[in-house]
Predict the structure.
Amino acid sequence: MRKQFANFIRTALLAICVAAIASPAWSQNADTILVNGKILTVDSQFSIREAIAVRDGKITAVGSNADIRKQAGPQTRVIDLRGRTVIPGLIDSHIHAIRAGQTFTTEVNWVGATSIVEAMNRIREASLAKKPGSWLIVAGGWQPQQFKEKRRPTQTDLVAAAPNNPVYVQHDYDWEVMTPAGFAAMGINSEADLPRPGKLERDASGNPTGAIEDVAGFDVAIALFEKLPHPTFDEQVEGTKKFFREMNRLGVTGVGDPGGNNLNPENYQPLFKVWRQHQLTLRIAYSLCGSTPGKEFEELKSLTQMLPEGFGDDMLKFNGLGERLTWGMNNNDYPTTEDKETYYQIVRWAAQKGMPVTMHWPKDETADTLLSIYERVNAEFPIADLRWSVAHLTNASVQNLQRMKAMGVGWTIQRPNAASVENAKELGVNMGAGTDAHRVASYNPFTALQWSLVDSKNAGGVHRGPDQTPTREDALRAYTIGSAWFSFDEKKRGSIEPGKLADLAILTKDYMTVPADQIGSIESLLTMVGGKIVYAAGPYASLEKDSQAPKR
Ligand SMILES: [Zn+2]
């Protein structure tokens, strides 16, 4: 018996030795090295290095060309950066990416269009690709200031571009324009047929212009959008993959997704399918909204019963509640006592369960309503370790930032509302950058870096003094490791340091030295997620053939 056992051990050891010699997995050589670059590591010193080594999806070393070349073996892929700038993969801390993906292949988008003419050309092209009578939809993501005409499209523009299709164009959540075919297809014959509190916009002579206004914002756009045809499940799966690749094209490797309007629990299935197929190319940390008015608490309790905090993997994970917990506290600066009490009960329960919460709150002037509830909960169940956050908070005052800091609450910043970023930095409030795309803004992180952060101007003019304009280093920090904090990932990603996931982007221009007004035109030439190349173009295009999704 003992002899048999000894034989078994000897055979097993021999097998291990043979495997060790035969398998390259045992070697310490890098899978990939990137050399001759300007690597913005975004470590605590913001060190700039020449080269990176990657093995098994992680960064194993960062340093000089000579040091990193020593890690290369005969099988190692060598990427010559030729002086190009490399950044950690960008992380948008607040983007409705799941929703944007579902309609990406079926909607028309105006991201990057610089004139009404170009925007109308995109409508025309889409109309030629679709059957007459099928809807053409632009569901936000544009601003009149991006067009050289500095105006919104008119119904006449749209009819000329697509005479044979109903067209729906949404601006933010407060204005929509449709063609007569669109009104007919929705069965809207007069103002009385509009969702409340919608009004037909009228010109100086009192004639309807074809646009619909909602001075209060949100409800009309949400209701109209619900009336539009929804993409099929397969179209949503396809759109999700394509949208995530589009984000990769812009150097984005991770997002915080706060749910949002027109996105209910059943709408997550296309995303889950892409995840199951191992085809996610963006890391997603998603939070859950309350969906049904009056039933939010029961819903959230029921849905999270099987979702332990942090559940998931490095590609997809559950990250608590938000950005809308209840309809009563959603875009409502003056909620009733009852609305506040319901909200308090939910966040108290979330704190007790150890869940993160992110909350949509646009106005600093009324943020006391929200922060008082956070403080009431914090006194019972300290939330400092739960990484709660407030999204938006335009012109956050020092006083409100101090209250947030005292509780360990972070701030996700988007668009030109980042008007007090230097105050927040001084106070030590955790900040994550992002876009809030795609209905209310473009998803392009570089235009966000330019307009909301580095450049004190935006398309609408000067919006902030130099005293609140962050350095390029700090803006990049907010868009990488700053955003990683909100999903408890700052030790795993958000900077290029040994031991971290190999998420990075090689840029078309040097983010550090290009004139500020050109930052918005930067793109990625190669994007890596977990060591896999998920996007490559130009000189690196041939490297993308290994298009397997990152390990999870
Ligand atoms: Zn929001």
DSSP finds 16 helices and 25 strands in the chain. The chain has a mean pLDDT of 91.
